[in-house]
Amino acid sequence: MPISSSAASLERKRIFRIRGSISTSSTEYEKPPSDKNFLTIEPALPTAEISRKLYKRSNSTLGSGPTKSHDSLCIPESVALQPYPDGTVHILRTPQEKEKNPDRISLDRRGLTILPILEDEANLRLLSLQHNLVNNLEGFKHQTFPFLVFLDIYDNQLEKIHCLDRLENLRVLLMGKNRIKRIEGLENLIKIEVLDLHGNQIVHVNGLSSLNQLKVLNLAGNQIRSIGASDLKGLVSLQEFNLRRNRLKKLLGFGETPSLQKLFLSNNELQS
């Protein structure tokens, strides 16, 4: 018997509901007749093979593990670490890298324990050694960087400030998160404007009298108990001084800092 148009419409809707729905317990479903009008979604994460290519071990045997490459998968590292039999580590850069960054080198997260020898880098202006294991700076005794203005040795294992005498044009020195106990070895850095020594083990503020161009001094997160009357002598250009998270009970000597605009003292033991 012929089906009325109304009945036919209801039947089509019922069939559509059955075919259009997919049971949550089913592991298979009918593939659409054509893929032309459907987008293909690639995996959000790289395959295991690609993931392995994204991580390369440093050429240095001093490395503590894989370091993530910032280069193309097909291009080798542009800055190579080459250990020598005498215990030194030499830095070798490709001509392409030198052309791209002629005056700056980043050696962050390379597992370095000593300062490397940077061959043919006399024009260097910026050197970054963040997140390594460097415990001394004796490598600066054997190298000359007359144009170096920015040195970042954040998060290493330095116990003292030394061997920086030849960096006479240095403007920024970042040595936070080390194991430094004393402010020293800065007498020749008369052009320095920013000094960051936060997160060390410094107890006394001294050794700064020759830094009359210093504008920013960060000593937060140390073990400083007091600022003496002559501790800030010579800091006539100091504009910003951070002493947060110390053990301060007494503050003197600020008559030596006529340019001071910002002073941070939270999380100390001051009572008046």
UniProtKB/TrEMBL annotation:
Keywords, alphabetical: Leucine-rich repeat, Repeat
Keyword presence, Repeat: yes
Stored InterPro entries: Leu-rich_rpt, Leu-rich_rpt_4, Leu-rich_rpt_typical-subtyp, LRR_dom_sf, SDS22/Internalin_LRR
Keyword Cytoplasm: no
Domain of life: Eukaryota
Protein name listed in UniProt: Leucine-rich repeat-containing protein 49
Origin species: Ignelater luminosus (Cucubano)
Lineage: Eukaryota, Metazoa, Ecdysozoa, Arthropoda, Hexapoda
